[in-house]
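[step 3/7] fold_predict: job queued, chain A
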Amino acid sequence: MTGPKRPVRVTLVIGSNRTGRFGPVIADWLLGRVREHDGFEVDVVDVAEADLPTTFAPTAEATARLAGITPKLAEADAFIVLTPEYNHSYPAALKNLIDWHYEEWRAKPVALVSYGGISGGLRAAEHLRQVFAELHATTVRDTVSFHNAHAAFDDTGRLREPTAPDAAAKVMLDQLSWWGQALREAKEKRPYGG
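[step 4/7] structure written:
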């Protein structure tokens, strides 16, 4: 007989730092789904609060700016990356945050939630799959995307039609939970050497 499973530690990365951004509305909805799902502990990293330099020089200033971010990524078993689509891809601030880290992503699953106009941010999500593959992270197959996101939510931040997004989030979170547990257990048995 096995004991209770340890919760999967998931870090939600909010990937937009644009003035007037819509990401926090979706993040609030998403955090509700994560908290309702059995077996997750959640933390948040918001690129709008990161203010990372783009030079990648390991200065004292950069280290100080990373102090509140890197531990949240390192301690995570899994990630959810929430991205808008800007000019057919994801924001530069998100790429900057990703590129400041390497080991923190390795052999961990990443779920992608996207939003935008008619494409729902899916092009941004597909670009992120390539980036995370290079970092030895595993993206889960199913995503959640919001086409014309502003119209999907009312003025209070509630989904007008929650059935399909809630169902998509459950499928994605089930996959993320499985991958998070499986990869954590695998790394406990044998460190990832890729």
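[step 5/7] annotate
Helices lie at 23-36, 60-66, 70-74, 92-99, 122-134, 149-152, 163-189.
The two ends are 33 Å apart (CA to CA).
exit 0
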